[in-house]
Amino acid sequence: MRRLFEVGELLRDTTVRVVVTCGTGGVGKTSVSAALAVSAAESGRHVVLVTVDPAKRLATALGLEGLGGEPQPVPGITGGSLDALMLDMTQTFDDAVRSHAPKNRVDEVLRNPFYKALSTSFSGTQDYMATEKLGQLYEQARSTGRWDLIVVDTPPSRSALDFLDAPARLDKLAEGPVLQLLAPSSGPLKLIGAGLSQVTWLISKVIGSKALSDLQVFATAFETVMGGFRRRAGVVRKLLASPATAFVIVASPRKAALDEARYFVGQLRDRGTTARGVVVNRVSPAVSLSREAEESLKQQPEAYDWWQTSWVTWRAQRSRMVSSLPVSLPITLARTLEREVTDLDVVRELGLLLVDGAGLAQEDERPVIDV
Q1: pTM over 0.85
Q2: Rounded distance, CA 33 to CA 67, Å?
Q3: Quick one: what percent of the chain has pLDDT higher than 90?
Q4: Rounded (10°) CA dihedral 185, 191, 193, 194
Q5: Which domains does the chain have, with CATH numbers?
């Protein structure tokens, strides 16, 4: 029998400071992320949940009117505490400027047209800002003690890989030709900084004196900002590769979702880390009956047909899970809930299912996902 993914054990492990959930679209990944965060908080931990995937229904499920870029307390949590936020790329970029730029140039940079254009059209902005936000939250957690666990709800699988690779890509970007051109200490803009009148006059004729002044301000400050990005990204890169981070893969019994989960397991392995376990969500419930109850049910044809159908569905799902997921990977199953995940009580119910755990029964065993 495959090992059970002990979700409750993971959430109680205080050496784990970050849980990253990954999975393809349509498997309930955001709901599982919320359930993990709620369960951890109600076990006594102080949790912050950040979603990179802009799933607006998460706010409703947590009893909030909306999610912004700043952590908001989730009401109704007992035991510990839970805050939640949604990644706001513009706000995170602005916060990074406030944190990393020279203090006397912050306002100039934030108003600078070159910065405004870069912050909204920079290739990979979401991934870099997700890295920056995780770094900000982790540093705040360490310095203030406000949280002892960060739960990160990533975008669907392939995009989640961009998020995981962002810290390393940021180094390559900073050393690449585009930003080297902007570097006032070493690139061509060093000539502007040196005040060479002929060069300054020529460039001002091409782009205008106001634009030249804006470019000088931006280039000088952004080199410092980029250095701050890289330092924080280095912290996040080490954090994601350390035992303090646990990757949880969320799938469903659909073949495409299971194949995507297997793909992600391999991608994590290629990056030198492993998934802590897989949550197979939305498994069809099947009723366990004693032999006597089964014989009795045969006297009710409609009910007996439903029970037989549930068995057929269960066996098909089990077969896909067995063939798709690595034997060495711990798995827990969560049955399809009777209600949509639209309020805190249902989130809590899903969390209890995950913590209680349901394993993958052998072919000849009764299913363990009971109604």
Answers
A1: no
A2: 15
A3: 36
A4: 110
A5: 7-356 (3.40.50.300)
